[in-house]
TrEMBL record:
Domain of life: Bacteria
Pfam families given in the database record: LacI, Peripla_BP_3
Lineage, broadest ranks: Bacteria, Pseudomonadati, Pseudomonadota, Betaproteobacteria, Burkholderiales
Cleavable signal peptide: none
UniProt GO MF annotations: DNA-binding transcription factor activity; transcription cis-regulatory region binding
Database matches in PANTHER family: HTH-TYPE TRANSCRIPTIONAL REPRESSOR PURR-RELATED, LACI-RELATED TRANSCRIPTIONAL REPRESSOR
Keywords linked to the UniProt accession: DNA-binding, Repressor, Transcription, Transcription regulation
Domain HTH lacI-type stretches: 9-63
Protein name stated in the entry: Substrate-binding domain-containing protein
């Protein structure tokens, strides 16, 4: 069958060959749940024989939906966002949605441009984690969006649904775990910045000591702007008169640099210094020894984002979930999973 022939095939041809109604064929092609397995098999066989390719542009015009979700992340080189996007794609694919990923690069002008592009292209909904959550023009651009929005782990002064990670209690749990092992000189290495994750982690770190009546140690590393500066800051901290006996370190790149400094100083994990990773990456899992970590439940977050966004989308289109439209924004607080491995021990190898 030639290319010109393929383009002329319609859904009516598929339905005729399958021996079903056009409506049944359409439900199969749109992954509708109310289809028998027998009908689904017949339609899929007819699609294969006829080499039928749906005209998505025409479908969008008829249904007034683009079947596209826009995703704006602050920096897609962050492994966490790569994992999040992969999980989101897996959640939305069965519903027939395609995700468009945009990289904000922590640049407010770029983020504003992306948000405006989402609006112009008629996305059905958007999921955003911008790097400039308090920037007035970024907030204005979000407020101007006419489609449903789900915010991922940002404190933004906008009336949108949000999924927030519980960094406060996650880091507090990590600190108290180390204190239970006998540590008090516990350091924390966070990336330079004022985003919600950084603010809440720092607050949880301080709260853990104060709740136990302990002084907060002067071991907060928060000035790093590059992996090289993380290394230098860590080296300086380890050379101090009162170096940490344990460290809590965020992210993959910060963690790698911190561990490189620990190794350069001739220290062993956990015999000389305990380490907890903020983020359970493949690196944390395969490091020798495997690192105790706070794991982000990415699949749970993706499913929550799908549920919140589709409820709003369906409500806007006047489907069965129309009562969701106009309801107050939902704020979902998701706890970390604390994974204990082999990177923590009592200070100085005691115990």
């Amino acid at each position: 069958m030639g290319f010109q022939d393929v383009k002329k095939i319609s859904i009516r041809d598929v339905a005729a060959l399958a021996g079903v109604s056009v409506g049944s064929a359409s439900r199969v092609l749109n992954n509708a749940p109310n289809v028998t397995e027998d009908v689904r098999v017949k339609v899929e066989r007819a699609v294969s024989v006829l080499q039928y390719r749906p005209n998505h542009a025409a479908q969008s015009l008829r249904s007034q939906t683009s079947k596209t979700i826009g995703c704006l992340f602050s920096d897609v080189s962050n492994p966490l966002y790569a994992r999040a996007f992969r999980a989101l794609e897996g959640c939305f694919r069965p519903d027939g949605y395609m995700l468009l990923l945009s990289n904000g690069l922590n640049d407010p002008e770029r983020e504003i441009e992306i948000l405006r592009t989402f609006q112009l292209r008629g996305m059905d909904g958007v999921i955003i984690a911008p790097g400039n959550e308090r920037h007035a023009e970024v907030l204005d651009a979000v407020n101007r969006l006419s489609m449903p929005v789900v915010i991922y782990d940002r404190d933004m002064a906008v009336d949108c649904d949000a999924i927030l990670l519980d960094h406060f209690n996650g880091v507090k749990t990590a600190v108290k775990h180390l204190i239970s092992l006998g540590h008090q000189r516990i350091g924390i290495a966070l990336w330079h910045g004022h985003s919600r994750p950084v603010r809440r982690r720092l607050a949880g770190y301080k709260a853990a000591f104060r709740e136990l009546g302990l002084d907060v140690p002067n071991l907060i590393m928060q000035e790093a702007t590059s992996t090289s500066s993380v290394f230098e800051d860590m080296m300086q901290t380890l050379r101090s008169d009162e170096p940490p006996t344990a460290m809590i370190v965020q992210g993959t790149y910060t963690l790698i640099s911190a561990l490189r400094a620990i190794s350069r100083m001739g220290l062993r994990v956990p015999a000389d210094i305990s380490v907890i990773a903020l983020g359970d990456t493949e690196f944390a899992q395969t490091y020798d020894p495997p690192l105790t970590a706070l794991r982000t439940p990415i699949e749970q977050i993706a499913q929550k984002a799908r549920l919140l966004l589709l409820e709003r989308i369906n409500g806007r289109r006047g489907n069965d979930d129309a009562d969701h439209i106009g309801t107050a924004p939902t704020k979902e607080l998701i706890p970390y999973e604390f994974i204990v491995r082999e990177s923590c021990a009592p200070p100085g190898g005691a115990g």
